[in-house]
Every structure is written in C-alpha cells, then in structure tokens.
Amino acid sequence: MKGVILSVRNLKVSRGGVPVLDIPGFEIRTGEFLSLIGPNGTGKSTLLLGLAGLIRKDRGEIGFHGKPVENGARLLDYRRRLAMVFQEPLLFDATVYENVASGLRIRGMARSSMRPVIEENLALFDVAHLSSRSARKISGGEAQRTSLARAFATNPELILLDEPFASLDPPTKEAIVQDLGHAMRIRGTTAVMATHDRMDALRLSDRIAVMDGGGIAQIGTPAEVMNQPVSEAVAAFVGVETILKGRVRSSAGGALQVEVGSREIFCAGTCEQGKEVLCFIRPEHVTIYPEGSRPDSSARNVLSGTIRSVQPIGMLYRVSIDCGFSLNAHVTGQSVDDLGLLPGKGVTAVFKATAVHVIRKPGA
Amino acid sequence: MKMLNRSFLVIMALFVAAILAGSPASAADGKNLILATTTSTQDTGLLDLLNPMFEKKTGYFVKTIAVGSGQAMAMGSKGEADVLLVHSPAAEKKFMEEGSGVNRKLVMHNDFIIVGPPSDPAGVKGMKSAPEAVKQIAAKGALFLSRGDNSGTHAKEKDLWKKAGVNPEGQKFYQQTGLGMGQTLNVAAEKKGYTLADRGTYLSLKKNLGMDILVDGDKTLLNIYHVIVVNPEKFPKVNTSAARAYADFVVSKDVQAIIGKFGVDKYGSPLFFPDAGKPDND
Amino acid sequence: MELILEGIRKAIWLLFTFDPEVLGITWLSLKVSGLATFFSLFIGISLGTVVALARFPGRRLVVSLINTGMGVPPVVVGLFVTIFLWRNGPLGFFELLYTPTAIILAQAVIATPIVAGISLASIQKLPEALRLQILALGATRIQMVRMLIREARLPLLAAVMAGFGGVISEVGASIMVGGNIKGYTRVLTTATVMETGKGNFDIAIALGVILLIFTFCINAILTGIQQRERPR
Question: Is residue A121 located within the same domain as residue A191?
Fold first, then answer.
C-alpha cells in the first residue's frame, strides 16, 4: 500500500457566517482516484477549493505528504505540485500551445525546455493539431482537452477536477473520460473529482465519498457506496429506488427475516430481533418473471405483484411493481416486449437476500 | 519580477523626462514672467511681435495669459501674475489703491468704436456722442452684444450705459457673450447686432466681419493701456525684476516706435498709438 | 461655404508644407496627451484592478466615485488643478502652472477615472473562476493580477483610446492650466479656440481638421478592436 498523499482534519468553512463545509477528516492515498458525489450545493466544489488552499477556512488542516500546508511559501509550493480543472475550460485568450505553457511559465521554466513537455501533453489529450489555434476558436470539447493538457503539463502529483465533464455532450465526454483515465494511469497521478454524475464516479474511482449537507456522509469503494449506503440520503443519491421500512422478525446465521407491511423479505445481515430497520434494494438487482412461474433461481425473495407503471429511462425501463409495497426494477426494452410488461399485468419479482442492504432505522 | 522592475524604471525615467521637458524655463529659477493681459493685445498679434523681442533681449521667458482686464487684475491681486498690461483705468486705480500693484505706467492707447451692421437699424451712424448712440440703440430695441466678462471693453461699455442713463441688464435687446473681443465681434456680425470694440481687434478681424464703424471719435471712447508691476512686497513670489524689465521694455523708446508702426503695413493705419511719457490723466 | 472650403484648402496647405508652428502645436498635443494617458493608465489600471479584485469596506463608495469621475467636466478639473498649482496654492512651490507639465497633470486627472472605470468593469467581467484557475496553476498573487490584466487587454486597450481621445480633444482644462502660451503650452484645441477668436478661421479650421484626423484614427482603431471576431 502506497503512502498517504493528502489528509484532511477538522476542516470547517463558512460563507457569510453560514457553515458550508464540516469535514471531520479523511485521507487520500498516492495514486488513488477519489470522487466526491452528491447533489448540488452539498459542498463538493467548496471541498475541492479547500483542498487546493483556495478558500479561507475557519479552521482545519490540510496535510500534504504528512506536512501541514500553511499560508505563504509552503502554500505556493503546494499549489505548484497540484493542478485543477474546472467545469468551464477557463482558457486564456492565447493559442492552445500558450495555454498549455502557462503553468510552466508561471514556474519560470525556460522557453526552450518547455517545448517537449508541452508537445507531450498536447499529444496526451489529442490536441497537438490545434497547437497554434486560438483558444477562443476551438470547440468546447477541444477546450476542455486543452485545459486538461494545461493541468497535466506541470506534471502534478495531485489533480483536482471540478465537474470536468458537466458541459460536454455524451460522445465528447466519453472520449475525454477515456483519455483522462489513460493519462492518470501512465502518470500515476492522484485525483479528486467532484461530480454530480454517479456513473462517472463509478467508472473512474477507486473510492467514492458521498457528500450531504457540507459533510461526507459515506466514503468507501464504489461497491460499498452503491450497495451498502449508510443512510437514506446516500441511498437515494447512489440510485437505490426501493427503500422499505420494516421490523426484524428473526435473525439467525447472518440471515434476517424482515416484516415489511403485510409481506416478509429475506435479507443478509445481522440485527437484533424486533428492531426497526430500513431495507435498500437497487433496481438493477430485481428481476421480473411472468406471473405464477417459479423461476429457476436460488434467490430467496420471490414476490407476486401487479405492475403499476412502466417508464422509459434512457436505455432501460423503470418498472414499478405493487407487491404489498412498492418495488422498482430496471429492465431492458427487450424484456418489456418479451414479457408484455404493461400497467395492471401480474408478475413475479425476484431478488436475492444479499441484494437487500439493511440498516438500523435512524432514531429507532 | 525582472520585467516588472525594468518597466518601472522606464516609467520613472519618462516621468522625470516629462517634468524636465515640460518646463525648460523653470529649470533656471526666476526666468519665468507671467504677463496677464487683455485679449486685444494677443488677438491683434502685438504681443507675438513684442514678446520674442523682450525674451531675446533679457533672457526671460514670457508666459502670456490672455484674459479680460478684469481677470488679469484678479490674477494680479492674488499674486498669480508678475506684470499686467490692461486697459480698464477705473479698475486699475482701485487695484493700485489696494496696494496690489506698483509702478503703473501709461503705454499706449487706441480707441473704442461702436460697430454694427451696415444697414444700421438703430440709425446711429455718425453720431458724435457715444452715450447718446447706445441710448438710441436701446430705444430702438436693436440687438446689442456685450462682452459681459469684466474685461476693459466691458468696463468701458458699462460706463457708456451709465452715462446714457440706461440700465440694459436683463433687457431683451441686450445679450452678453462672455467671450473675448474677437469672438464677440463674430457673434455680433452673425446676429447683425451692435457692439463696442477696440479699434485694433476690429481692424485685425475686419476682412471676415462685414461690420462697419458707426460711431467713433468721442473722447469717452478713448482706450488706454497701462502696464502695472504686481506689488512684490505683498506677494513675495512675484518675479519683480522680470516684471520691472518688462514694464521698462514696453515704454522704452524703441518699443514705443514699434507699437506706433504696428499694423500700418496690414491695415493702412496703426492699431495702437504710443503714449509713454505723456501726461497721464486717467 | 466659401470660408469652409478656403479653410480646408488652408488646412491641407499647412499640413503638407509642414508649417513649423502647426507642427509644433500638433506635436505638443500628442506629447502632452500621450504622456497624460500613459500616467493615467498606470494609475487607472492599478486602481481599477485593485477595486475589481479586493473586497474592503467602502468599496461601493469607491466604485461610485470612479464612475462619477468618468463624467467630471474637464473645466472643473482645470479649475481645481489651477487652484492647487497657483504660486500661493498648496503645490505652488513646484511652479508648474502655465507649463506643459500642468496640462499633463490636469489631463491625467481627467483620464484616470475613465481608465480606472473601464479597467474595473473589464476585470470584473472576467469569470470569477478564472482567478481560482490561475492560482491553481501555481501563480503568485502578482502573477495572477498580471495574467488577469493580460486577459482583459482588449477592453483595456479601449480604455487607452477612450482616455487619449478624451484628453486630446479637451480644451477647458488645457487653457486654464496651460494658458495657451505660444510655442510652449499651445495645443491643438486651445489654438483652435484662439484662432477662432482672432478671426483666423482658415487656421482654426486647419487645426480642427488635424484634430479630427487624430480622433478619427483613434476611433477607427477602437472600432477595429471592437469588431474583431471573438466567438465564445
């Protein structure tokens, strides 16, 4: 395991007297890709600016390679070892080449020694052919590529990305995400990215921090965060669509039987009997079979119900089933056609006990 | 940072250069002479002839500030001028009585004239008395343009109204330009009105004006210029030696001769009549 | 009509025969207004940038003062500069009244709020995040300010033109603090006023035409900059 590159302790930031950020602490390891996700206004960008030492903090400490980053020379030195890319490319009114050179010029590098560095980074983000073009006369995608090349040109140890893909159209974004991933791998750069798109976070991240109300609600691997959200808010943000209130009827050998309304579901986990709990079920983990069929599956939960609605959501459809409680499933268009899924139709919904994540109900 | 230092030095150098280039004469202390005078001496071109001669002879640098006689004396009474060349005898006497000036000397005269459109709607042409003429202009309601700037000409004009027993202020026929003599003549020509002018300025502008001399020769129309040295005891910053040199220069025999010939070649008659050394009744 | 034609003929004659007096007046005008603009740029851009970037109590008041200053009539500036420079005034010791330096000073005072106001507006118009981006690139505060000024260079160039155009065509302050002294503080505008007063309309028109040529050139450059293609 590589060492800790960045540590945050007791970070508090307020704006106009209102607290906007309150982080007890976390650490980022060298080479790690950490995503900050969460709804707008939960402090993702503020945390990034805090990490870059670009905002006034009420208190708290940022440690870089174990040494606190203070004001003055130490802060400048720290900033010269990181880079930041924003949602807007924020290019200078100069050529693409000059933009990529800007970080190096700030560091006082000689013009002659810059050239190979700049050319390497222009190539890394596939903008070498735009080198002599004005940054005002290139497309949005090309501009963001230039902005990334500018950030990587200073060979930063840490790169901070603030919604870098939010203004791009899907194909452009796809290509840039791939190039960024490639750049990160070959350079071994540590990254922290703020995004409101959990899919971007899932693709790129080693760990994800879910932010809520100026704090970090949960931090963990993508699987942990997606499948085992620690709260209703996190669950809702990571795409859990079925959140059920229930009571533990029995608990034995890591398996729970939870009473939800008039039905019972089987879940993996441990909990004292009689406790009130919340059960989270991701829609991808629910499968739908024709009514009455006994699916060939080891899944413990087999529930009959009636379709309440079928909505297209991009490539998939969201099927909402009334089976004593409301259960959402995501299915392909193919399945909708094959099974003739229409509102009012009876179906059998199936999910594994391990697909249900159970937490204690807060306050219970 | 290196760049920044260099540009800073360039700026400082330019600033110093600007100050030095800006005031070549003030580099040598006491070489500047501020002459506050009336517009007529500048507009006729007399000073353009005399001042270079003075500068060449004495090495002083003359800063001619051409304003009305009233303003020139106001400058003198604050010590902001060294020497005055003015033509407003009543105000000059007050100036002397206040102790603002020393050594007031008669320099020259010409005369004021009442000019107007050739059609002469008020019928004043050839009148012998200037106060009677303005009285008639007022009675006929014909437009009269006044300098209205406390200049020597304006003072003389107010004197005429007083003698005529007319108060023109606020009356419809009476308009004040607030401008110098040349411009007021232009306005009068444009509006086909009457005005009081000094003969020198009128003659120098005559070709473009289309205005005629309607009344002249009245003794009250005499226009007398004096040179006054501003009192150095009252205002220690006054360059008194230069001021005295200038006063002596304009009343000197040679310069008086030049004044007497000034304008003859161009207008056929002199614009000013040298008076230095003559008895001064005003 | 005949007069105007005669004036224009005279103007061309004076220009193409390089009449020494006209040339001297023109050169002095350019020198005085150029230097005044130069100093006003130095102070105006610094002031505008500081006010645009800094947050301090009373900032709104300063912004209002700059905006008011942009519209102060030159004669008012002339009056105050005259009072300050009088021999017996607070700065009389320098003996600057009725010198070209006095005109430079007055014109710089006139142009500074214009330059400061345009600088303030153009720096403020830059995206807020650009400052953060520049700092995140590792810039010191001084480097950041210089890069921001560089980014705003087009509107700042407009500030230069506006400042220069404002002072070279200004007459009130120049005549008050300069005194229109022949061969010393006589600039294009004061000479035009005087020649008009003397009835030398041909020379006045000639001087006016020269002034027009300069203002036209300035506006042509300004328009060229404004029309420069700048897609977002």
Answer: yes
Identify whether residues A199 and A92 lie together within a single domain. Answer: yes
Task: Output the six-digit token pair for B244.
Answer: 């005295």
CATH 3.40.190.10 region(s) of chain B? Answer: 2-109+225-274, 111-221
CATH classification (class only), B111-221: alpha beta
ipTM over 0.90: no
C2-227 is a CATH 3.30.365.10 domain = no
For residue C232, the 8-state DSSP code is -
User: First-to-last CA distance in chain A?
Assistant: 39
pLDDT band at B160 (very low <50, low <70, confident <90, very high): very high
Q: Which residues of C touch A150 (CB under 8 A)?
A: 137
Q: At what angle do helices C153-168 and C20-53 cross, to 10 degrees?
A: 140
**The CATH number of the domain where A298 resides is what?**
2.40.50.100
pTM of the predicted structure, to 2 decimals: 0.79
CA distance B102 to B33: 16
Q: Calculate how close chain C gets to B40, using CA atoms only, in Å.
A: 9
The pLDDT score that the predictor gives to residue C203 is 84
Beta-carbon separation of A136 and C230 below 8 A: yes
Q: What is the CATH number of domain B2-109+225-274?
A: 3.40.190.10
pLDDT at A89 (0 to 100)? 95
| pLDDT for residue B10 | 62
Domain boundaries, chain C: 2-227
Closest alpha carbon within chain C to A75 = C138
Q: How far apart are CA B270 and CA B206, in angstroms?
A: 14
In the DSSP assignment, the letter for residue A64 is E
In this predicted model, what pLDDT tens digit does every residue of A263-306 receive, in sequence order?
999 999 888 888 999 999 999 999 999 988 777 778 889 999 99
pLDDT in tens, B23-45: 444 434 578 999 999 988 888 88
Q: Do C100 and B237 touch (CB under 8 A)?
A: no
C-alpha–C-alpha distance, residues C55 and A165, integer Å: 32
Q: What are the chain A neighbours of C130 within 8 Å (beta carbons)?
A: 90
Q: A36 is in which domain, residue-wise?
A: 4-236
Tell me what pLDDT residue C174 has: 94
CB contact set of C105 (below 8 Å; sequence gap of 6+): C36, C81, C85, C96, C177
Mean pLDDT, range C29-44, rounded to an integer: 93
